[in-house]
Specification:
about 500 residues; alpha/beta; Rossmann fold; N-(1-d-carboxylethyl)-l-norvaline Dehydrogenase, domain 2; three-stranded mixed β-sheet; 21 helices; about 10% strand; globular
Length: about 500
């Protein structure tokens, strides 16, 4: 029978499963992490766990937190197994498992976030980290600043002591620390956003300024918000992954599967110290921007190149897309001709070599990363990952045929039906609005580009608008596979 995961059963785990060698009862917290999804547990928490395995960071343990009602389910699962997580590495060469133990508690999920604010107000907490997804920062897509009209932000401005958002809770904790004479913590974004630390700083400082100018000045002056780049492919967990853990011999209610690749590039800008992550493989540098540009454009934008085409052609996973006779050549050509030219090299890696690495990672058949997961929240991912490349290509006078086709595929997908007639279920926070625009664009393609919150002035860029309109018209009349092959053969 599989061993029920807990502190008490660590020594009973199957032979070959790595487990904490440190005394977890002796750990003390130094980090509050908001957003305990799979990525955090397979990535940032793993780096800290490995540092603890090496004898360090015993006063940097993680307290988990969430601000949404659905976080309560994850809290219940993890607390029931002492906040341990089974990490299962999926590689064509074989499967291995490791139990990670850097997290020691999970705060209650409650309206007003009192427990979260109290925890972040404790001077022992020196870092507050977040993985709240690219779309979770309340960015006004027109101005690029904080969306002060969003109902959650409106609530936090009116109720600073009982906020609804993670950022409102951070502002409340900063206020409590200043009032008590304590130094601020470092705010550390671990989301796939270019300049993620700068975005987090802007979000928190702007929100603070709407209620207390002097507090905002103090946060901006005394706090720190390092930029970082994070990378590891981590599929969602479902019954299959739970069953896999049981096959290994572990009864884990929330296991995580991941590829055999991790990268974490961090700007060394912390106001209250940090763990020595570089001792376990993280890269500490003053030039995070070059690394994150390479990753966001080649990997994250590359995911969007694949995902919408895969949805339309009823292809289930990213690895299946990489073996598809129409999708794979389309992907390679867009990456080579229209994305890599707008990426600079970083130490030890040229963009064309990184593109080859990404292709190999995407093709890993052991990683069942669903097209639906990757296509989720295209309204954030296309604007954040694809459109910046498109703008650079237009400015340089380069071809945008492939990138225009990527956007046409997104528009076609948002009409809500695949080429085989099956329905695409809602898969974006703005799905209802996207469907309206997509259906109108079937007859008048420019209706899609007139969504200024996504495209800004790109509808006036003739090379892009013409190519987009042509491709979308052909997708509706000829079908996705035919159009992809036509582009790849051109």
């Amino acid at each position: 029978m599989p061993v029920k995961l807990s502190n008490a059963t660590l020594n009973d785990l199957p032979e070959g499963v790595l487990r904490p060698t440190y005394d977890r009862t002796a750990l003390t917290p130094g980090i509050v992490h908001i957003g305990l999804g799979n990525f955090h547990r397979a990535h940032q928490a793993w780096y800290l766990h490995r540092l603890m395995q090496a004898g360090g960071a015993r006063d940097w343990a993680i307290i988990g937190a969430g601000v949404r009602p659905y976080d309560a389910d994850m809290r219940e699962r993890l607390l029931a197994q002492d906040c341990l997580t089974t990490l299962i590495e999926l590689d064509p060469a074989g499967t291995s498992a490791e139990v990670s133990g850097a997290m020691i508690d999970y705060l209650p999920i409650e309206e007003g976030n009192a427990s979260l604010i109290a925890a972040m107000s404790d001077p022992a907490i020196r870092i507050v980290a977040l993985t709240v997804t690219e779309g979770g920062y309340y960015v006004d897509r027109v101005t690029g600043g904080l969306d002060v009209e969003h109902p959650d932000i409106v609530h936090d401005i009116a109720n600073p002591a009982s906020p609804r958002t993670a950022f409102g809770a951070m502002v409340a904790a900063f206020s409590a620390r200043r009032a008590a004479g304590h130094a601020p913590f470092t705010g550390q974004s671990c989301d796939n956003l270019q300049g993620n630390g700068d975005i987090l700083r802007r979000t928190v400082v702007t929100l603070a300024r709407l209620t207390d100018d002097s507090l905002a000045d103090w946060i901006d002056r005394e706090g720190a918000f390092p930029n970082s780049m994070v990378d590891c492919i981590v599929p969602a967990t479902g019954p299959k992954e739970i069953a896999l853990a049981r096959e290994i011999g572990i009864d884990d209610a929330a296991p995580v599967t991941h590829e055999n690749f991790r990268q974490w590039v961090i700007e060394d800008r912390f106001c209250a110290g940090r763990p020595a992550w570089e001792e376990v493989g993280a890269t500490i540098t003053d030039d995070v921007h070059s690394y994150e540009t390479m990753k966001i454009r080649i990997l994250n934008a590359g995911h969007q190149v694949l995902a919408n085409a895969g949805e339309l052609l009823s292809v289930g996973s990213i690895s299946d897309c990489m073996t598809h006779s129409a999708i794979a050549p389309f992907f390679r050509k867009v990456e080579r001709d229209e994305i890599a030219p707008y990426v600079d090299a970083v130490p030890g890696m040229k963009p064309e070599d990184y593109a080859i690495l990404i292709e190999r990672r995407f093709a890993n058949p052991a990683i069942h990363d669903t097209v639906r997961r990757v296509a989720f929240d295209g309204s954030s991912r296309h604007t954040g990952f694809v459109l910046p490349v498109l703008r650079d290509a237009l400015a340089a006078g380069g071809s945008v045929e492939g990138l225009a086709l990527v956007e046409a595929l997104w528009a076609r997908m948002c009409a809500g039906g695949r080429d085989d007639g099956t329905v695409i279920e809602p898969n974006d926070p703005m799905w209802s609005q996207l469907v309206v625009a997509a259906l109108e664009a079937k007859e008048r393609p420019m209706a899609w580009l007139e969504q200024e919150r996504f495209y800004g002035d790109l509808a006036q860029a003739a090379p892009f608008a013409e190519a987009f309109s042509r491709w979308l018209t052909r997708l509706w009349s000829e079908g996705t596979e035919s159009v992809l092959k036509a582009y790849a053969a051109a």
